[in-house]
Amino acid sequence: MMTNDRAVMQKRGLRLAGVSAVVLSGLMLAMAPSAALAGKIDNSESAAPAAATPAADPQAFIDEVYALCHSMAGDDMGALDTAYKHGWSEGDTDGDGPFYHMFDATKTFDGIGDVELWGTMENYPAGRLGYCRIDVTLPEDSTLALESISKQPGLTGKITNNDDGNYGVWSSTSEPQFFAIAQIVGSDFQLEVNAVLPQADKDDTAKGDAKP
After folding, report:
1. For the segment 185-206, what is each residue's pLDDT rounded down to a tens digit?
2. Cβ atoms of 75 and 18 closer than 8 Å
3. What would the DSSP string read from start to end of 5-17?
4. How far apart are CA 38 and CA 172, in angstroms?
5. What SS3 class is residue 75?
6. For residue range 123-154, what is the model confidence (pLDDT) as tens digits?
7. Contacts of 21 (CB under 8 A, 6+ apart)
8. Coil, strand, or helix at residue 181?
9. Is 117 within 8 Å of 6 (Cβ atoms)?
10. How distant is the alpha carbon of residue 51 from its chain centre?
């Protein structure tokens, strides 16, 4: 369903069919504050801001990466600054022109592995589309389960397990609408978060610097 090829053109092409249907139906919902990322990250003195941060607990890992991806898909660019202070390494935050913005970051979690986050924010006259994705190759003894995503606040969804792997889909229960899809196939874990947001301030859009 998803690959690890990070070519920019492929990144821009990745979209959930469900989100496309929502956009085509004209759903533009009011913006709400994104997840409180700082509360999901270890702020103790023992945390290593520039190195591997202990996060072997699968639920703690999901809590942090989902909060960050939710914030990024929700166009909260300040969330990256918070993440950089807690072990995430800065990546590419450039875009193609004033209406398309791309970002990425990486972090190593002890007991989990090297995690890659990337996503995009697209600005249109009628609204914005936010997208964020997490990729990681899990260790053989990993106990990570998609049920950890179901425990995130404000989500409802379902999980299907079969011989090929474990798959899950979720939607937010309040505005604005967020959509999440994840899978564990073999040792590969992938999580995508999509958001449909209202249009940016008209003055900012006219200037080519679309912001919430």
Report:
1. 999 999 999 999 998 765 544 4
2. no
3. ---HHHHHH---H
4. 21
5. coil
6. 999 999 999 999 999 999 999 999 999 999 99
7. none
8. strand
9. no
10. 21
